[in-house]
Amino acid sequence: MVKSNHLLKSEQKQSLSRRKRSLRTAKPIGCLHLLLRAEYRPKKQVRSTDSKNDQRYLIDSKNLRRKPIDKSHLLAWAAGFIDADGSLNAQIVRRKDYKLQFQVRISITVFQSTKRFHLLLRMQKLFRTGTVRKRNDGMSEFTIVGGAQVKTCLTSILPYLWLKRAQANLLLKIAAKLPYTKDPRILLETCALADKIGQLTDGKKRLNFSTEVCETLRSLGHDV
User: Cα 40 from chain centroid?
Assistant: First the structure.
């Protein structure tokens, strides 16, 4: 049976009203879940009738729903996630197979309960890089490692970061120097920046510092 335009409009208003009530009463994660799932809802077609020429046509009900979330809003969401449950790290790693014996490694890590594993997958899809893994302690993590990948990610979310903006700016400076760390002086400068990030991070105890790198470089005959 074909529904009239009046009945269609009435049903659309009722549907919109129910969605608004669900968003107002939903918990934060539930509300966010509804927003992120909006663009993945299956299409439904409603058959209606044009009153002017009495021709039937199809209305895509997806057009009546909330518009897809803008990418800038998703980047702001990801920045808030990283501010709250993320970690921006720069590690000085000893490498015996390296000529200068040290390497600086930068990374972004986001932690979340495995119950909300889908949020980490959504973040991975947003940045189009990184790895997601489930740990044995009921937690999961999303990790981006490497100068180019970290630089691309941080550049996109930097305007929205608040708590970790200082660490992000330092990581971007390190990322710019990484391709030139075969030079002993630049390596030492990069390690000094990693020390500054360590002072801003409440993470695990660090093993290597720029002072140790400086001593090693001098023992190898480099004037630093």
Answer: 19
pTM of this prediction? Answer: 0.68
Instruction: Per-residue pLDDT tens, the chain, 224 aa: give them.
Output: 445 666 666 676 666 666 656 555 544 444 455 455 544 444 444 444 444 444 443 444 444 455 667 888 899 999 998 999 899 999 999 998 999 999 999 999 999 999 999 999 999 999 999 999 999 999 999 999 999 999 999 999 999 999 999 999 999 999 999 999 999 999 999 999 999 998 887 666 788 899 999 999 999 999 88
Residue 82 near residue 69 (C-beta atoms within 8 A):
no
Evaluated on CA atoms 180, 183, 189, 193, the torsion sign reads positive
Q: Exposed, middle or buried: residue 209 (CB in 10 Å: 0-12, 13-18, 19+)?
A: middle
In 66-191, where do the E strands start and end? 86-94, 102-113, 131-134, 139-145
List the domain boundaries for the chain: 5-67, 72-219
Residue 89, both tokens: 């790290």
Closest CA to 86 of 190, 178, 171: 171
Is CATH 3.10.28.10 correct for 72-219? yes
> What order of strands is seen across the sheet that includes strand 131-134?
86-94, 102-113, 139-145, 131-134
For residue 106, what are the CA distances in angstroms to 88, 149, 189, 193?
Answer: 8, 10, 15, 11
